[in-house]
Amino acid sequence: MSSTKAISLEFFPPRDIAAQEKLVRSAKQLLALHPAYVSVTFGAGGSTRTGTADTVRLLQNLGCDAAPHLSCIGATRAVLADILDSYREQGIRRIVALRGDLPSGMGGDQGELHYASELVAFIRQHSGDWFHIEVAGYPEMHPQAPGAAADLDHFVNKVRAGANSAITQYFFNADAYFDFVDRSRAKGVDIPIVPGIMPITNYAQLARFSNMCGAEIPRWIRLRLADFGDDKASIKAFGVEVISRLSQDLLDNGAPGLHFYTLNNAEVTMAIWRQLRLD
Ligand code: FAD
């Protein structure tokens, strides 16, 4: 399949030289597939503002369009304005705007903005239309939301505040995505909603992430993964098969693209990419 779908890739800032070397190796392999853009997380896992900016620069130097994630929790307007200005000077045109979780890369507890919708509005107020703004969507509901309907309204608020497109939390049940898109469209949301895709490589890590972010691992996937025990090769092969099938279903049924959470590993994302014949 020669693709008109926008495929993007997410990386996180490396913590040391060895991790940076690994990131560069992975990024070079993955950039050869010509993703639409790459993004770099902020704050998650203890990374810092400088770590995100440096990693964005590193990826820009490898020749790709790189988008920093920016979270507002714990930050003042002055700090956010400063970051936006420096990204603008760096030639960045796309930002993933988030609330974030505490503790955040901003460090402080003096946050002036409490939700991503306020951050989106602030970016528009401060930087006009300079940035293409991505926001997060939750097909299986954000874990802190009081209910699915309220969470959808909060998502709609982010779009009305000026978001250009959305990337979803990962999920393993395509129906949750299609339902979320349908409910968003019914509320007048017409921006692209790109599914976030989490490759499966490590059961313990996946279970930990999923507990935190509220992504359901279907029972049959849990049981299959449990059977594999420490057999990493079988877990990877099974993961590529399951995630390729999910991704194909999403693309065949209207998803405008895919956003891969690479976890700075090239191998599995490349294997899925090839299965999907995206290049
Ligand atoms: P919001 O949209 O603000 O929503 C957060 C919660 O508040 C939801 O439960 C929502 O329903 C509720 N809410 C929103 N508005 C209101 C309101 N007005 N009144 C009451 N409740 C409201 N985290 C990081 O730390 N760094 C990253 O780089 C990062 N990247 C991510 C990328 C993607 C694609 C995704 C899906 C998530 C990412 N996260 C990241 C995780 C994210 O920061 C967390 O999920 C966080 O808890 C919520 O962020 P948000 O932008 O979705 O928040």
Automatic annotation (TrEMBL):
Names of required cofactors: FAD
EC number: 1.5.1.54
Pathway where this protein functions: One-carbon metabolism; tetrahydrofolate interconversion; Amino-acid biosynthesis; L-methionine biosynthesis via de novo pathway
Domain of life, source organism: Bacteria
CDD domains from the UniProt entry: MTHFR (cd00537)
Top-rank EC class of the record's enzyme: oxidoreductase
GO cellular component: cytosol
Membrane-spanning segments: none
Catalysed reactions listed for this entry: (6S)-5-methyl-5,6,7,8-tetrahydrofolate + NAD(+) = (6R)-5,10-methylene-5,6,7,8-tetrahydrofolate + NADH + H(+)
InterPro entries the UniProt entry points to: FAD-linked_oxidoreductase-like, Mehydrof_redctse-like, MTHF_reductase_bac
GO molecular function: FAD binding; methylenetetrahydrofolate reductase (NADH) activity
Biological process, per Gene Ontology: methionine biosynthetic process; tetrahydrofolate interconversion
NAD listed as a keyword: yes
Assigned protein family: Belongs to the methylenetetrahydrofolate reductase family.
Name under which the protein is recorded: Methylenetetrahydrofolate reductase
Originating organism: Pollutimonas bauzanensis
